[in-house]
Every structure is written in C-alpha cells, then in structure tokens.
Amino acid sequence: MSYIGHPIEAHTSGFTQAHDLVQRILNALSAPRAPAPQPASAPDCIAFQAAMQAHNLPCPRVAALFNSACAMAGVRALHSAAEARRYLRDGAVYPLLFVPVSEDGGAETFSAIAYEKNADAAVLGNGAPIALSDVVRLLELPCARGYLLQELPSPHRLGGLRVTVAMSAHGPHIVHAAWKLAGADDDIALPLWKASSRLVLAGAALFPFIERQHWDIALSARGPLAMGMRAQPAQAL
C-alpha cells in the first residue's frame, strides 16, 4: 500500500493524519497474518535496483540507504536514527520516496515532498506534516530490513503504468497494461508504450524464475522508470 497522494479530509488536521499513519502501520504489525501461498519470491528492493543498474535499465536514483545490512555503490549509508534525522534536515533533496527493502512484513512505501525547518517536520505526499522523529520510527521498523530513500518522479496525470508479464519457454510477454489511477481509461500513447514495454520486457527477462510479474512504471521527464516488481500467484491475475 502506498501513501503517496491520498486526499486530505477537511475535518482532520494534517498532524492527526500523520499520527494515524504511524499508528496504523505499527498496530497492523502486531496482528497475526494468515500464511498466503507464495510464488517464487521477487527480489527485495536492493536486489531489484542492483539488477536494473547492472543492465542500464532506467529506475529511480537512490539517494541514501537506511539501516540495511547491504550496501549500494555510490549510495550514502545511514546507520542510525541520529544520522537519518541529520540527513533529512540538512542533506536530503526533496521530494523523496521511502521504500522498504522488504515489503513482506507490513512496512509501507511513503513519500515526503519537503522539510519544514520551523516544525522539524517532513511534509508527506498528501500534504500532511509529520515530525522527523515519527519518520525515523517508520524507517526503524525491523520488518522493513532497512529503507531506500530515492527520487520521487513528478507524477503523471494518470498515475503511471502497471504492467503484468507472463513468462514462458520463449521468454516474457505482456498480458495486461493499465494506468495506475483508478478509473483511467485513456489510451497509452504509442511512443510512451514502446519505451515502457521495452523496459518491462528487458527487466522481466532478468527474473525468468518468476512466472507472473507485476511492474510499476513511473513516467518522468527522463522517460519511463521501473519503480518495482512484484510476484503474484497466477490465479490472482
């Protein structure tokens, strides 16, 4: 689940929404989860980024990596809460997307579009302020196995693309593509579709052991960017 662009209810203050986000995630983690059938596992976010970069496939730039057992070449490592707070105050270039290394345990992706010095708070993608101490609480969730702090592409009016790929003996092929924005039914412009489909098929071929792949593609000034890939059982398509 993502909290990049939810609308703000008029009757709820921004600080209440930010607090609710923190509490909702922390409370959800304590609830037992029924085991679900799993296909071949998708790579975690660090392995995904490494695969994209190794094959020169466009993906978001990673600015920093928080509290991860792994390192990324050329990426600043943040090893403590104090380091993270200093970086978010003084070193970060906003907007940022915060992506958990592992999404299996309930940690969530969220964004911050600015830092407000007077309040020592970040501004979430929905416009709600959240204290940096609460941001760091989210980053420290053990189930996340660390967080990537990466560029947040300017949103496309239709929210980017979600593309489903099936693997066969002949390689990957696209079985479905749609705008991520609910209810959007505009046609995908041909030049944009050519670039996006080339990216998805090239990326999918790197993971031939995953029979069904769901790719999230952002549309930026640099062209399509591979934001991530998830594996799901075939019957869920």
From TrEMBL:
Name the UniProt record assigns to this protein: Uncharacterized protein
Species this protein is from: Massilia atriviolacea
